């Protein structure tokens, strides 16, 4: 069986199937179930937004007004829609030096220029961001400061404030991707909570509750900007939430199922990271026990391409972090290993052992 260690998905508990079955039975018994099909849900029903505010509460300081919330069909389409709204062809989009935005290919799709900002173990270096603003005048900063993909760090509160101050000084709009933020128990507040005036926040359920639950949330800087987003982007239905999926997500948040799944995912990730730490004991790996990824440096004589081919012949898929960007010729030699991708810990252990063997030569 193929084990794809590039897939950023959470390891789900066994009860998820029965929980989904029960919820779909409940939805099928709705007296107005026919209303789920004739119309779009657009930016979400009020009940969806209230559930979103409840789910995101731990990432914000205080209550989150629902008139700032836009419900979407996931974070990638939300980011695409936001860049369409906030930028234009030829604009510069800044990110961390290694960024999932590079893998998604969105800047190229929109004919925008992508530049990476130097980072350290805490994320974007403020002085490097300021220098980039002076030199290139980016329009937008796309940032993943909590359980970063692919580098696994979480940016501390003080640095978040520094980054927000620089963005404000140079009129740079921040898009904060917090898709894994719920998993981090001691995470600093979202940048959007610390600096709502300059930040659009995106998150969702895919990395905490299930990759197939394509429901996401945008939090706009204020209600007026949320309304502007919807009025400008309403005709582009690619970001609209599926009514049935939105109904499942809202019910699961309200009845506690989403939290129950998320807590099980968090606990299982800790077990899987222990497995990775044991298997890669002789390598300088980096991980957060509540995150989805392990950063695995490549130090052997084989090239990354050789390792990828060797493992693919053994039905294991890995990908170099070079796909996430970096300066030409200075890309780090490492793999981003997604510990949630395997069916169980036994399968993960077997796959990681083969990876360790492949990079030890």
Automatic annotation (TrEMBL):
Aminotransferase class I/classII large domain: residues covered: 42-349
Molecular function, one GO term: pyridoxal phosphate binding
Protein name: Aminotransferase class I/classII large domain-containing protein
Organism of this sequence: Mesorhizobium delmotii
């Amino acid at each position: 069986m193929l084990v794809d260690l590039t897939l950023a998905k959470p390891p789900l508990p066994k009860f998820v199937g029965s929980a989904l079955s029960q919820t779909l039975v409940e939805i099928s018994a709705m007296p107005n179930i026919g209303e789920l099909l004739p119309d779009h849900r657009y930016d979400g029903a009020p009940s969806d937004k209230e559930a979103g505010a409840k789910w995101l509460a731990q990432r914000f300081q205080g209550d989150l007004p629902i008139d700032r919330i836009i419900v979407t069909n996931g974070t990638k389409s939300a980011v695409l829609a936001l860049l369409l709204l906030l930028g234009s062809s030829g604009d510069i989009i800044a990110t961390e030096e290694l960024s999932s935005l590079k893998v998604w290919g969105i800047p190229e799709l929109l004919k925008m220029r992508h530049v990476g900002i130097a980072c350290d173990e805490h994320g974007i270096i403020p002085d490097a961001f300021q220098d980039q603003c002076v030199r290139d005048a980016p329009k937008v900063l796309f940032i993943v400061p909590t359980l970063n993909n692919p580098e696994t760090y979480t940016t501390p509160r003080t640095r978040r404030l520094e980054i927000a101050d620089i963005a404000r000084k140079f009129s740079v709009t921040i898009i904060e991707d917090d898709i894994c933020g719920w998993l981090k128990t001691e995470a600093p507040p979202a940048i959007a909570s610390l600096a709502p005036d300059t930040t659009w926040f995106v998150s969702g359920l895919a990395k905490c509750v299930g990759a197939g639950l394509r429901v996401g949330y945008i939090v706009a800087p204020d209600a007026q900007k949320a309304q502007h987003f919807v009025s400008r982007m309403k005709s582009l239905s690619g970001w609209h939430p599926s009514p049935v999926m939105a109904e499942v997500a809202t019910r699961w948040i309200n009845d506690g199922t989403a939290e129950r799944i998320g807590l099980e995912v968090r606990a299982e990730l800790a077990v899987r990271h222990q497995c990775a730490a044991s298997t890669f004991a002789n390598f300088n790996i980096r991980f957060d026990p509540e995150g989805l990824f392990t950063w695995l440096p490549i130090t052997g004589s084989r090239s990354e391409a050789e390792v990828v081919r060797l493992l693919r012949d053994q039905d294991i898929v890995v990908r170099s972090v070079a796909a996430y960007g970096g300066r030409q010729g200075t890309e780090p030699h490492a793999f981003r290993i997604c510990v949630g991708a395997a069916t169980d810990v036994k399968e993960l252990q077997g796959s990681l052992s083969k990876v360790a063997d492949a990079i030890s030569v």
